[in-house]
Amino acid sequence: MRTMLELSLSATPKAAPELRRELRAYDYDIRLCATELLTNVIDHVGDGTPVTVRVTAAAGDADRTRIEVRDPNTRTLPVIRAATETQEYGRGLTLVAALAERWGVDLGPDGKTVWCELAPASSC
């Protein structure tokens, strides 16, 4: 995989706009998915959690973009939830799943990586 961007940051609400600025050269879907994965860490693992965000060309397919968000928590795993019309939260992973060709979680002894792979914008 060819790394196009790698950032180490603290998962805080102000990190989301910072991440969007760093990804300004990428299309909207990539910015949205990366931000939603980061926001999940803030909401479900904890404000201030150290994360690494990596954007790469997907293995075996340079046309697809892979987004990875790594955090040190192995106990809190992402789950798609059904949000009601009036809820202001609970749609992030649903958006990622809808936009990505595939997504998943890789567990390691010292953390997890939540990732998704997106097709080129022209074929979405």
UniProtKB/TrEMBL annotation:
**Could you confirm whether the keyword Cell inner membrane appears in this record?**
no
Q: Would the keyword Nucleotide-binding be found if you checked this record's keyword annotation? A: yes
Q: Which SUPFAM superfamilies match?
A: ATPase domain of HSP90 chaperone/DNA topoisomerase II/histidine kinase (SSF55874)
Q: Where is the Histidine kinase/HSP90-like ATPase domain?
A: 28-115
* Record keywords: ATP-binding, Kinase, Nucleotide-binding, Serine/threonine-protein kinase, Transferase
Pfam short name (any one): HATPase_c_2
Cross-referenced CDD domains: HATPase_RsbW-like
GO molecular function ontology, one term from the record: ATP binding
Read off the InterPro entries from this record. Anti-sigma-factor_SerPK, HATPase_C_sf, HATPase_dom
PANTHER family referenced in this protein's UniProt entry, alphabetically: ANTI-SIGMA-F FACTOR RSBW, ANTI-SIGMA-F FACTOR RSBW-RELATED
Q: What is this protein called?
A: ATP-binding protein
Traced from the root, the source organism's taxonomic lineage reads:
Bacteria, Bacillati, Actinomycetota, Actinomycetes, Kitasatosporales
